[in-house]
């Protein structure tokens, strides 16, 4: 669990936007963990449940379709004409190759990703909230380290 002594809980300060410790029996509150706290358990609990990264790094493979925001690719001067369903099928094929171990995300992204990240094998580098498309950002920040998101539309 949290590693806190009995009757102590963790709350989030609305004014300071950080956690504090509250004893429901004595109504005492503290910015510091109370006496008797298992600090290692508390650290793990906070990392797993409360502390979210402000900045993340991830890679992706983007396969555009004709209804994409910008239906162009570095691979051709012509606009992309494939349907969304066709793009999804292409991605499922790449996903299968990655699962089978016949290719890696970075190998496929270098050759097939329709955006400029292909030049870095799909690596988007470090970014903070507000820098990416909202739906992508939400999915990316929800991932754990090393976790792979399924197809993202």
Question: What does this 3D model show about the protein?
Answer:
- Strands 1-2-3 form a three-stranded antiparallel beta sheet, with no helix packed on it. The protein has a two-stranded antiparallel sheet with strand order 4-5.
- It is elongated and about 70 Å long.
- By secondary structure, it is α+β, with helices and mostly antiparallel strands.
- The two termini are 36 Å apart.
- Helix content is 29%, strand content 16%.
- It folds into two domains: 42 residues, Ubiquitin Ligase Nedd4, Chain: W (Single Sheet); 88 residues, Roll (Chitinase A, domain 3).
- It contains four helices and five strands, in the order E-E-E-H-E-H-H-E-H.
- The longest helix is centred in the middle third of the chain and has 17 residues.
Helix content: 25-40%
| Biggest beta-sheet profile | 3 strands, antiparallel
How many beta strands in the DSSP annotation?
5
What is the C-level CATH assignment of the largest domain? Alpha Beta
Radius of gyration: 22 Å
Global geometry: elongated
Discrete helix count: 4
Low-confidence stretches: none
Rounded mean pLDDT score: 89
Report how far the terminal alpha carbons are from each other.
36 Å
| Tally of structural domains | 2
Per DSSP, what share of the residues sits in E-state strands of 2 or more residues?
Answer: 15-25%
Order of helices and strands: EEEHEHHEH
- For the record, the CATH architecture of the largest domain stands as Roll
Assign the CATH topology of the largest domain: Chitinase A, domain 3
Lateral strand order in the biggest sheet: 1-2-3
Protein name: Peptidyl-prolyl cis-trans isomerase
Catalytic activity: [protein]-peptidylproline (omega=180) = [protein]-peptidylproline (omega=0)
Enzyme class: isomerase
Organism: Pachysolen tannophilus NRRL Y-2460
